[in-house]
Amino acid sequence: MLRAVDASALSLARSDDEPPLTIPRDPAREAARRELSKRMYHENDPSWFQRALDAFWDWVGRLFDTASSATPGGPLGLVVVIAAIVLVVGALWWRLGTPSRGPASSAALFDDRPRSAADHRAAAEAHAAQGHWNQAVQERMRAIVRSLEERALLDVRPGRTADEAAAEAGRALPSRTDRLRSAARDFDDVTYGGRAATEQSYHRIAELDRDLERTKPVLANSTSSSHSADHNARRGAAE
Fold first, then answer.
1. What pTM, to 2 d.p., does this model score?
2. How many CB atoms lie within 10 A of CB 103?
3. H helices within 71-132, ranges in order?
4. In a 3-state reduction of DSSP, which class is residue 234?
5. Between these two residues, 85 and 202, which has the higher pLDDT value?
6. What are φ and ψ of residue 236, in 5° steps?
7. What is the DSSP letter of 158?
8. Which residues of 137-170 are buried (b: 16+ CB within 10 A; e: fewer)?
């Protein structure tokens, strides 16, 4: 193409009645550059986006070649390593769930619609019958807390979280403290942690609900009386 442009420049530089002229190399190169810079020669050039995309894929190709040369087994070994990393990340994501942005138990346990423990139990059983274990676990935990409020073992307090309810209920039901905390964790994992509940987790929390109904609370007055009686008995024995 340069030769053709040089010929064109030479033909333009001379007239019909003048003999051909020999143009030095540098002026000829400059004339060719000016000719090639015209728009008509660049109509089919790739766009800036296509050039950037080509440069990116060239960089990816060089990176892959470098990594495969440093990995035992070459390209096949690199593919195996990448697949193993993807499987590990997928397994961790499935096991731990979607990371939550805030504290696990930052929202209230109940919404603005007051319902009885029986209402929450009925809703839990309806969700369980359809295999909706997340909603079943949530409603059963609400039934537990509402039942404790109805028995005056917990004060009715708006905005209470599952962890707070478990900690407060553990004072009146110390033998069930660990199970209450476990139920609160299940509720938080499902509601705020992005994890999926299972049938076993629902049956576990439902059994706790039934067990709490049969459990007698340890009241503060009875505890004080018991300590006082033990103290008096020890004092009488000493005398």
1. 0.49
2. 11
3. 74-96, 117-129
4. helix
5. 202
6. -65, -40
7. T
8. bbbbbbbbbbbbbeeebbeeeeebbbbbbbebbb
By C-alpha distance, which of 126, 127, 120, 157 is closest to 141? 120
Distance CA 128, CA 136 (A): 5
Residue 101, classified by CB atoms within 10 Å of its CB into exposed (0-12), middle (13-18) or buried (19+), is exposed
State which amino acid sits at residue 131.
G
Helices (H), 97-132: 117-129
pLDDT-based confidence at 74, cuts 50/70/90?
low
Average pLDDT taken over every residue of the chain: 75
What's the average model confidence in pLDDT over 130-145?
94
Give the whole-angstrom CA distance, residue 175 versus residue 215.
9
| SS3 state of residue 39 | helix
Q: What is the pLDDT of residues 162-208, one digit of tens each?
A: 999 999 999 989 999 999 999 999 999 998 888 999 999 999 999 99
67, two tokens: 């990594």
User: Which has the closest alpha carbon to 20: 29, 31, 9?
Assistant: 9
How many other β-carbons are positioned within 10 Å of the β-carbon of residue 132?
16
Handedness of CA 156, 160, 166, 172 (dihedral sign): negative
Cβ-contact 51, 25 below 8 angstroms: no
Whole-number pLDDT of residue 157: 83
Q: How far apart are the first and last CA of the chain?
A: 123
Distances (CA, A) of 121 to 60, 135, 213: 57, 11, 13
